[in-house]
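forwarding from the other thread:

> can someone predict this with 6-O-phosphono-beta-D-fructofuranose?

sure thing
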Amino acid sequence: MTKAQRRRIAILTGGGDAPGLNAAIRAVVRHAVFTLGWEVLGVRNGYNGFLEPDGVFPLTLDMVRGILPLGGTILGAANRGNPFAQEMEIDGRKVTVDVSDDIVARIHELQLDAVIVTGGDGTLGAALDLYRKGAPIVGIPKTIDNDVPGTDFTIGFDTAVSVAAEALDRLHTTAESHHRVMVVELMGRDAGFIALHAGVAGGADIILLPEIPFHYEVLAAKVLGRIRRGRMFSIVAVAEGAYPEGGQKVYRQPGEGLVEARLGGISLQVADYIAQATGTETRALILGHLQRGGTPTARDRVLATLFGAEAVRLVAQDRLGHMVALRGTRVEALPLAEMLAQRPKRVQPDDDVLLAARAIGTVFGDEIDRLRSAGEAGL
Ligand code: F6P
Protein backbone atom coordinates (compact mmCIF):
# COMPACT_ATOMS: atom_id res chain seq x y z
CA MET A 1 0.00 0.00 0.00
CA THR A 2 1.37 3.44 -0.92
CA LYS A 3 1.51 6.23 1.64
CA ALA A 4 -1.22 7.98 -0.34
CA GLN A 5 -3.56 5.01 0.10
CA ARG A 6 -2.81 4.50 3.78
CA ARG A 7 -5.02 6.95 5.61
CA ARG A 8 -4.81 8.32 9.09
CA ILE A 9 -8.12 8.98 10.82
CA ALA A 10 -9.31 9.82 14.33
CA ILE A 11 -12.49 9.09 16.25
CA LEU A 12 -14.12 10.95 19.15
CA THR A 13 -17.29 10.53 21.19
CA GLY A 14 -18.94 13.89 22.02
CA GLY A 15 -21.91 14.81 24.22
CA GLY A 16 -23.39 12.41 26.76
CA ASP A 17 -22.48 8.73 26.47
CA ALA A 18 -24.87 6.21 24.91
CA PRO A 19 -24.80 2.40 25.02
CA GLY A 20 -23.28 1.14 21.77
CA LEU A 21 -20.54 3.77 21.42
CA ASN A 22 -17.84 1.20 22.10
CA ALA A 23 -19.30 -1.07 19.44
CA ALA A 24 -19.03 1.85 16.98
CA ILE A 25 -15.41 2.57 18.01
CA ARG A 26 -14.60 -1.13 17.55
CA ALA A 27 -16.20 -1.20 14.10
CA VAL A 28 -14.26 1.90 12.98
CA VAL A 29 -10.94 0.46 14.18
CA ARG A 30 -11.57 -3.02 12.78
CA HIS A 31 -12.65 -1.78 9.36
CA ALA A 32 -9.91 0.86 9.11
CA VAL A 33 -6.98 -0.99 10.69
CA PHE A 34 -7.74 -4.69 10.19
CA THR A 35 -9.37 -4.56 6.76
CA LEU A 36 -7.86 -1.47 5.14
CA GLY A 37 -4.49 -1.18 6.90
CA TRP A 38 -5.09 2.46 7.93
CA GLU A 39 -4.01 4.16 11.14
CA VAL A 40 -6.64 5.20 13.73
CA LEU A 41 -6.18 7.67 16.58
CA GLY A 42 -8.51 7.99 19.55
CA VAL A 43 -9.43 11.43 20.92
CA ARG A 44 -10.25 11.63 24.63
CA ASN A 45 -13.27 13.45 26.10
CA GLY A 46 -14.91 14.72 22.94
CA TYR A 47 -13.33 17.62 21.05
CA ASN A 48 -11.43 18.60 24.22
CA GLY A 49 -8.88 15.83 23.63
CA PHE A 50 -7.44 17.66 20.61
CA LEU A 51 -6.14 20.36 22.95
CA GLU A 52 -5.19 18.19 25.93
CA PRO A 53 -1.73 16.71 26.54
CA ASP A 54 -2.01 12.98 25.70
CA GLY A 55 -5.55 13.70 24.46
CA VAL A 56 -4.84 11.95 21.14
CA PHE A 57 -3.38 8.45 21.06
CA PRO A 58 -3.06 5.47 18.68
CA LEU A 59 -6.10 3.20 18.82
CA THR A 60 -5.02 -0.36 18.09
CA LEU A 61 -6.89 -3.58 17.38
CA ASP A 62 -5.85 -4.83 20.81
CA MET A 63 -7.44 -1.84 22.49
CA VAL A 64 -10.87 -2.55 21.00
CA ARG A 65 -10.83 -6.27 21.77
CA GLY A 66 -13.68 -7.22 24.16
CA ILE A 67 -15.40 -3.81 24.18
CA LEU A 68 -18.41 -4.78 22.02
CA PRO A 69 -20.73 -5.47 25.00
CA LEU A 70 -19.44 -2.59 27.17
CA GLY A 71 -21.59 0.47 27.89
CA GLY A 72 -20.10 3.97 28.10
CA THR A 73 -17.20 4.92 25.86
CA ILE A 74 -13.54 3.96 26.23
CA LEU A 75 -12.69 7.41 24.83
CA GLY A 76 -14.52 9.34 27.53
CA ALA A 77 -17.31 11.82 26.83
CA ALA A 78 -17.77 15.53 27.53
CA ASN A 79 -21.15 17.17 27.13
CA ARG A 80 -19.76 20.64 27.81
CA GLY A 81 -17.15 20.49 25.08
CA ASN A 82 -18.46 22.76 22.34
CA PRO A 83 -15.29 24.02 20.53
CA PHE A 84 -17.08 27.28 19.66
CA ALA A 85 -18.03 27.99 23.30
CA GLN A 86 -15.58 26.31 25.66
CA GLU A 87 -16.15 27.23 29.27
CA MET A 88 -12.84 27.93 31.00
CA GLU A 89 -11.57 29.49 34.16
CA ILE A 90 -9.02 32.22 33.52
CA ASP A 91 -7.61 34.08 36.56
CA GLY A 92 -10.44 32.70 38.69
CA ARG A 93 -13.08 34.04 36.26
CA LYS A 94 -15.44 31.81 34.22
CA VAL A 95 -15.19 32.74 30.55
CA THR A 96 -16.45 31.28 27.28
CA VAL A 97 -13.77 30.88 24.62
CA ASP A 98 -13.93 29.87 20.94
CA VAL A 99 -11.18 27.25 20.44
CA SER A 100 -12.41 26.01 17.06
CA ASP A 101 -9.43 27.45 15.13
CA ASP A 102 -7.02 25.69 17.52
CA ILE A 103 -8.85 22.40 16.99
CA VAL A 104 -8.81 22.72 13.19
CA ALA A 105 -5.10 23.59 13.34
CA ARG A 106 -4.44 20.54 15.54
CA ILE A 107 -6.34 18.28 13.13
CA HIS A 108 -4.11 19.53 10.28
CA GLU A 109 -0.98 19.23 12.41
CA LEU A 110 -1.87 15.59 13.09
CA GLN A 111 -2.25 15.13 9.29
CA LEU A 112 -5.65 13.52 9.71
CA ASP A 113 -7.52 12.52 6.57
CA ALA A 114 -10.73 12.40 8.58
CA VAL A 115 -12.20 12.76 12.05
CA ILE A 116 -15.17 10.50 12.78
CA VAL A 117 -17.39 12.33 15.25
CA THR A 118 -20.11 10.44 17.13
CA GLY A 119 -22.66 12.75 18.66
CA GLY A 120 -26.17 14.09 18.99
CA ASP A 121 -27.34 17.24 17.23
CA GLY A 122 -25.15 19.52 19.40
CA THR A 123 -21.90 17.65 18.74
CA LEU A 124 -22.79 17.13 15.06
CA GLY A 125 -23.70 20.83 14.73
CA ALA A 126 -20.22 21.73 15.95
CA ALA A 127 -18.84 19.09 13.54
CA LEU A 128 -20.50 20.86 10.60
CA ASP A 129 -19.06 24.21 11.67
CA LEU A 130 -15.58 22.65 11.98
CA TYR A 131 -16.05 21.07 8.53
CA ARG A 132 -16.87 24.52 7.14
CA LYS A 133 -13.60 25.72 8.65
CA GLY A 134 -11.69 23.02 6.77
CA ALA A 135 -11.74 20.03 9.14
CA PRO A 136 -12.33 16.67 7.38
CA ILE A 137 -15.38 15.35 9.29
CA VAL A 138 -17.69 12.33 9.04
CA GLY A 139 -20.54 12.00 11.59
CA ILE A 140 -22.22 9.10 13.37
CA PRO A 141 -25.54 9.91 15.14
CA LYS A 142 -25.84 8.72 18.73
CA THR A 143 -28.16 9.66 21.58
CA ILE A 144 -30.60 7.69 23.68
CA ASP A 145 -33.18 10.42 22.87
CA ASN A 146 -33.40 9.41 19.16
CA ASP A 147 -34.03 13.06 18.23
CA VAL A 148 -31.44 13.46 15.43
CA PRO A 149 -33.26 14.20 12.16
CA GLY A 150 -32.49 12.26 9.00
CA THR A 151 -32.00 8.88 10.65
CA ASP A 152 -34.71 6.50 11.85
CA PHE A 153 -32.63 5.45 14.85
CA THR A 154 -29.58 6.63 16.78
CA ILE A 155 -27.10 4.53 18.74
CA GLY A 156 -28.29 4.03 22.34
CA PHE A 157 -32.03 4.46 21.88
CA ASP A 158 -32.87 0.76 21.78
CA THR A 159 -30.97 0.08 25.00
CA ALA A 160 -32.60 3.00 26.83
CA VAL A 161 -36.04 1.75 25.74
CA SER A 162 -35.23 -1.80 26.88
CA VAL A 163 -34.05 -0.62 30.31
CA ALA A 164 -37.11 1.59 30.72
CA ALA A 165 -39.48 -1.17 29.59
CA GLU A 166 -37.92 -3.57 32.09
CA ALA A 167 -38.41 -0.95 34.82
CA LEU A 168 -42.10 -0.70 33.87
CA ASP A 169 -42.43 -4.51 34.04
CA ARG A 170 -40.92 -4.53 37.52
CA LEU A 171 -43.13 -1.66 38.69
CA HIS A 172 -46.23 -3.50 37.43
CA THR A 173 -45.85 -6.30 39.95
CA THR A 174 -45.35 -4.05 42.95
CA ALA A 175 -48.05 -1.59 41.79
CA GLU A 176 -50.55 -4.41 41.41
CA SER A 177 -49.69 -5.96 44.80
CA HIS A 178 -50.15 -2.64 46.61
CA HIS A 179 -53.04 -1.28 44.50
CA ARG A 180 -50.97 1.77 43.72
CA VAL A 181 -50.32 4.15 40.89
CA MET A 182 -46.67 4.20 39.82
CA VAL A 183 -45.43 7.19 37.84
CA VAL A 184 -42.10 6.65 36.06
CA GLU A 185 -40.15 9.57 34.60
CA LEU A 186 -38.09 8.74 31.55
CA MET A 187 -35.35 10.64 29.73
CA GLY A 188 -35.46 12.09 26.22
CA ARG A 189 -35.20 15.86 26.69
CA ASP A 190 -37.80 17.49 24.43
CA ALA A 191 -38.50 14.29 22.47
CA GLY A 192 -40.89 11.61 23.69
CA PHE A 193 -39.52 8.59 21.82
CA ILE A 194 -38.16 6.76 24.89
CA ALA A 195 -41.38 7.27 26.88
CA LEU A 196 -43.56 6.29 23.91
CA HIS A 197 -41.68 3.12 23.00
CA ALA A 198 -40.98 2.02 26.58
CA GLY A 199 -44.53 2.86 27.57
CA VAL A 200 -45.91 0.69 24.79
CA ALA A 201 -43.44 -2.14 25.45
CA GLY A 202 -44.11 -1.98 29.20
CA GLY A 203 -47.91 -1.70 28.92
CA ALA A 204 -48.27 1.74 30.54
CA ASP A 205 -51.88 2.85 30.98
CA ILE A 206 -50.96 6.51 30.56
CA ILE A 207 -48.03 7.91 28.52
CA LEU A 208 -47.18 11.60 28.73
CA LEU A 209 -44.99 13.13 26.02
CA PRO A 210 -43.43 16.57 25.48
CA GLU A 211 -45.15 16.67 22.09
CA ILE A 212 -48.65 16.31 23.61
CA PRO A 213 -49.46 18.70 26.48
CA PHE A 214 -51.72 16.83 28.91
CA HIS A 215 -54.81 17.68 30.98
CA TYR A 216 -54.58 16.59 34.60
CA GLU A 217 -58.33 15.72 34.72
CA VAL A 218 -57.79 13.11 32.03
CA LEU A 219 -55.15 11.34 34.14
CA ALA A 220 -57.44 11.18 37.19
CA ALA A 221 -60.35 9.97 35.07
CA LYS A 222 -58.27 7.17 33.53
CA VAL A 223 -57.09 5.96 36.96
CA LEU A 224 -60.63 6.11 38.39
CA GLY A 225 -62.05 4.41 35.30
CA ARG A 226 -59.61 1.54 35.77
CA ILE A 227 -60.53 1.24 39.45
CA ARG A 228 -64.23 1.04 38.47
CA ARG A 229 -63.36 -1.80 36.10
CA GLY A 230 -61.54 -3.62 38.93
CA ARG A 231 -58.03 -2.59 37.92
CA MET A 232 -56.81 -1.27 41.23
CA PHE A 233 -53.42 -0.11 39.97
CA SER A 234 -52.12 2.01 37.10
CA ILE A 235 -48.78 2.66 35.45
CA VAL A 236 -47.87 6.09 34.08
CA ALA A 237 -44.80 6.62 31.85
CA VAL A 238 -43.97 10.32 31.74
CA ALA A 239 -41.24 11.84 29.58
CA GLU A 240 -39.06 14.33 31.47
CA GLY A 241 -40.07 17.03 28.98
CA ALA A 242 -43.84 16.48 29.33
CA TYR A 243 -45.96 19.36 30.68
CA PRO A 244 -49.61 20.17 31.32
CA GLU A 245 -51.65 22.21 28.82
CA GLY A 246 -51.03 25.88 29.66
CA GLY A 247 -48.20 24.89 32.04
CA GLN A 248 -44.43 24.66 31.85
CA LYS A 249 -41.70 22.05 31.65
CA VAL A 250 -40.11 21.21 35.00
CA TYR A 251 -36.37 21.78 35.49
CA ARG A 252 -33.91 21.08 38.28
CA GLN A 253 -31.94 24.28 38.69
CA PRO A 254 -28.14 24.69 38.88
CA GLY A 255 -26.89 24.37 42.42
CA GLU A 256 -28.58 21.04 43.16
CA GLY A 257 -25.42 19.22 42.08
CA LEU A 258 -25.94 20.59 38.57
CA VAL A 259 -23.82 23.05 36.60
CA GLU A 260 -26.74 23.94 34.36
CA ALA A 261 -30.52 23.39 34.51
CA ARG A 262 -31.73 19.91 33.55
CA LEU A 263 -35.25 18.64 32.90
CA GLY A 264 -36.55 16.63 35.83
CA GLY A 265 -39.35 16.41 38.37
CA ILE A 266 -42.60 16.36 36.38
CA SER A 267 -43.30 12.82 37.70
CA LEU A 268 -43.54 14.20 41.26
CA GLN A 269 -46.15 16.76 40.24
CA VAL A 270 -48.14 14.16 38.31
CA ALA A 271 -48.00 11.73 41.24
CA ASP A 272 -49.13 14.40 43.73
CA TYR A 273 -52.06 15.34 41.54
CA ILE A 274 -53.19 11.74 40.96
CA ALA A 275 -52.95 10.90 44.67
CA GLN A 276 -55.05 13.90 45.64
CA ALA A 277 -57.58 13.67 42.84
CA THR A 278 -58.19 9.91 43.09
CA GLY A 279 -57.35 9.09 46.71
CA THR A 280 -55.08 6.32 45.42
CA GLU A 281 -51.66 5.74 46.92
CA THR A 282 -49.18 6.95 44.29
CA ARG A 283 -45.42 6.76 44.00
CA ALA A 284 -43.04 8.54 41.61
CA LEU A 285 -39.71 7.30 40.32
CA ILE A 286 -37.15 9.12 38.16
CA LEU A 287 -35.30 6.38 36.26
CA GLY A 288 -32.48 8.77 35.25
CA HIS A 289 -29.06 7.70 34.04
CA LEU A 290 -29.81 3.99 34.45
CA GLN A 291 -31.24 4.39 30.94
CA ARG A 292 -27.82 5.39 29.61
CA GLY A 293 -25.62 2.92 31.43
CA GLY A 294 -24.77 -0.73 31.05
CA THR A 295 -24.48 -3.18 28.22
CA PRO A 296 -26.02 -2.23 24.86
CA THR A 297 -28.77 -4.38 23.38
CA ALA A 298 -27.96 -6.61 20.40
CA ARG A 299 -29.85 -4.15 18.20
CA ASP A 300 -27.71 -1.20 19.33
CA ARG A 301 -24.55 -3.23 18.76
CA VAL A 302 -25.66 -4.08 15.23
CA LEU A 303 -26.60 -0.47 14.49
CA ALA A 304 -23.28 0.79 15.91
CA THR A 305 -21.36 -1.74 13.81
CA LEU A 306 -23.27 -0.70 10.67
CA PHE A 307 -22.63 2.98 11.38
CA GLY A 308 -18.94 2.51 12.28
CA ALA A 309 -18.14 0.47 9.17
CA GLU A 310 -20.13 2.83 6.92
CA ALA A 311 -18.40 5.91 8.36
CA VAL A 312 -15.01 4.45 7.36
CA ARG A 313 -16.40 3.63 3.92
CA LEU A 314 -17.44 7.29 3.53
CA VAL A 315 -13.88 8.36 4.34
CA ALA A 316 -12.54 5.89 1.75
CA GLN A 317 -14.92 7.47 -0.80
CA ASP A 318 -13.88 11.01 0.24
CA ARG A 319 -17.46 11.81 1.22
CA LEU A 320 -16.53 14.19 4.02
CA GLY A 321 -19.10 16.50 5.64
CA HIS A 322 -21.62 13.64 5.70
CA MET A 323 -23.22 11.64 8.48
CA VAL A 324 -24.31 8.02 8.34
CA ALA A 325 -28.04 7.42 8.78
CA LEU A 326 -30.47 4.52 8.96
CA ARG A 327 -33.44 4.76 6.58
CA GLY A 328 -35.69 1.74 6.91
CA THR A 329 -33.21 -1.14 6.86
CA ARG A 330 -30.55 0.64 4.78
CA VAL A 331 -27.54 2.64 5.93
CA GLU A 332 -27.16 5.82 3.93
CA ALA A 333 -25.04 8.97 3.88
CA LEU A 334 -26.61 12.36 4.48
CA PRO A 335 -24.85 15.75 4.23
CA LEU A 336 -24.48 17.14 7.77
CA ALA A 337 -25.81 20.46 6.48
CA GLU A 338 -28.99 18.74 5.27
CA MET A 339 -29.50 17.03 8.63
CA LEU A 340 -28.98 20.24 10.58
CA ALA A 341 -31.30 22.24 8.32
CA GLN A 342 -34.14 20.03 9.55
CA ARG A 343 -35.98 20.57 12.82
CA PRO A 344 -35.01 18.18 15.66
CA LYS A 345 -36.96 14.95 15.36
CA ARG A 346 -40.09 14.73 17.51
CA VAL A 347 -42.96 12.24 17.92
CA GLN A 348 -45.46 13.22 15.22
CA PRO A 349 -49.25 13.02 15.68
CA ASP A 350 -49.41 10.33 12.97
CA ASP A 351 -46.54 8.23 14.40
CA ASP A 352 -47.60 4.59 13.94
CA VAL A 353 -46.52 3.59 17.45
CA LEU A 354 -48.52 6.47 18.93
CA LEU A 355 -51.58 5.56 16.86
CA ALA A 356 -51.31 1.88 17.82
CA ALA A 357 -51.08 2.84 21.50
CA ARG A 358 -54.17 5.03 21.18
CA ALA A 359 -55.95 2.18 19.37
CA ILE A 360 -55.41 -0.17 22.30
CA GLY A 361 -56.70 2.32 24.87
CA THR A 362 -53.51 3.95 26.14
CA VAL A 363 -54.21 7.49 27.25
CA PHE A 364 -51.91 10.43 26.40
CA GLY A 365 -53.64 13.07 28.49
CA ASP A 366 -55.08 15.04 25.56
CA GLU A 367 -58.40 13.15 25.45
CA ILE A 368 -60.20 16.06 27.11
CA ASP A 369 -63.06 16.20 24.57
CA ARG A 370 -63.74 12.49 25.02
CA LEU A 371 -63.75 12.97 28.79
CA ARG A 372 -66.14 15.90 28.55
CA SER A 373 -68.55 14.12 26.24
CA ALA A 374 -68.49 10.57 27.65
CA GLY A 375 -67.00 10.95 31.12
CA GLU A 376 -64.64 8.31 32.58
CA ALA A 377 -66.34 5.68 30.45
CA GLY A 378 -64.82 7.35 27.38
CA LEU A 379 -61.34 6.53 28.61
O1 F6P B 1 -29.44 13.65 25.75
C1 F6P B 1 -29.27 12.51 26.53
C2 F6P B 1 -29.76 12.75 27.93
O2 F6P B 1 -29.60 11.54 28.67
C3 F6P B 1 -31.19 13.27 28.05
O3 F6P B 1 -32.14 12.26 27.84
C4 F6P B 1 -31.16 13.86 29.43
O4 F6P B 1 -32.12 14.88 29.57
C5 F6P B 1 -29.77 14.44 29.51
O5 F6P B 1 -28.98 13.74 28.56
C6 F6P B 1 -29.14 14.35 30.86
O6 F6P B 1 -27.94 15.05 30.83
P1 F6P B 1 -26.79 14.85 31.90
O7 F6P B 1 -26.13 13.53 31.62
O8 F6P B 1 -25.92 16.01 31.67
O9 F6P B 1 -27.43 14.83 33.25
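Residues 159-292+348-378 form a domain with the Rossmann fold fold (CATH 3.40.50.460). thats all i got for now
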